């Protein structure tokens, strides 16, 4: 039986997620970073991921990652918080960096990974990707077990020549300087999260969730299958955005969104962040995701759907300054 080595890998930054522990005001930051020392998941399109979510195939798509132990640090306000680094493969990071369903799915996996490994539950309705900060504190080099790398590559439906060469090297490892370390008794440092363990696909940058009035009393629980259906037949609704007053300092934004296939507001979900509007009517396939050059007062957003004109009107007060 070959001795499994710990491979020390250095990291490059990716992006930073600001989240909160569920039911608390305590901040928790995730530094998503990238490295060539972790293999990528098998290459997959968004259409394939949609099929996996719809068909419920829990073992058909795994995302290898390394999660560090959460550590205490201070945020920009010198408040105590926790942060951990989660590393994924560099090529896979390039694929999800621009957004889309794969990134939404990945962020869901990150949250579940932190909870499964360290029993820290994060609030999936209250988090955002920081725009101007790539990481909090500092990035810590990771130790990756080559056993875990081997298991990931062996899970690929088809293997390239490069994959086979790496497998051969892992099965016949050369001694590392300073002797070897066994993985006996250790929890795997690469966490493989199955699609089937994902409880919900989250909106990766929202900081608040607003529902249209007549469903406000119902708890909103996103469902990955519904996300998949929406992504499979996405259409952008016609929209208009006005500012009041037309000149001078803006006091509010008024958005009008035409959703002709919707019958009632119960089919519509509206997420408004500080500078982002995300509108979804998943069963009808509508998806609109836009950023605005204003700071919206999320707590005072109001929305009304006219079932006759099929227009959703959203009033968004603008913060001063």
TrEMBL record:
<dbReference type="Pfam" id="PF18201">
    <property type="entry name" value="PIH1_CS"/>
</dbReference>
<comment type="function">
    <text>Involved in the assembly of C/D box small nucleolar ribonucleoprotein (snoRNP) particles. Recruits the SWI/SNF complex to the core promoter of rRNA genes and enhances pre-rRNA transcription. Mediates interaction of TELO2 with the R2TP complex which is necessary for the stability of MTOR and SMG1. Positively regulates the assembly and activity of the mTORC1 complex.</text>
</comment>
<dbReference type="InterPro" id="IPR012981">
    <property type="entry name" value="PIH1_N"/>
</dbReference>
<dbReference type="GO" id="GO:0097255">
    <property type="term" value="C:R2TP complex"/>
</dbReference>
<dbReference type="InterPro" id="IPR050734">
    <property type="entry name" value="PIH1/Kintoun_subfamily"/>
</dbReference>
<dbReference type="GO" id="GO:0000492">
    <property type="term" value="P:box C/D snoRNP assembly"/>
</dbReference>
<dbReference type="InterPro" id="IPR041442">
    <property type="entry name" value="PIH1D1/2/3_CS-like"/>
</dbReference>
<feature type="domain" description="PIH1D1/2/3 CS-like">
    <location>
        <begin position="249"/>
        <end position="319"/>
    </location>
</feature>
<protein>
    <recommendedName>
        <fullName>PIH1 domain-containing protein 1</fullName>
    </recommendedName>
</protein>
<dbReference type="GO" id="GO:0005737">
    <property type="term" value="C:cytoplasm"/>
</dbReference>
<dbReference type="Pfam" id="PF08190">
    <property type="entry name" value="PIH1"/>
</dbReference>
<feature type="domain" description="PIH1 N-terminal">
    <location>
        <begin position="12"/>
        <end position="151"/>
    </location>
</feature>
<dbReference type="GO" id="GO:1990904">
    <property type="term" value="C:ribonucleoprotein complex"/>
</dbReference>
<comment type="similarity">
    <text>Belongs to the PIH1 family.</text>
</comment>
<dbReference type="GO" id="GO:0006364">
    <property type="term" value="P:rRNA processing"/>
</dbReference>
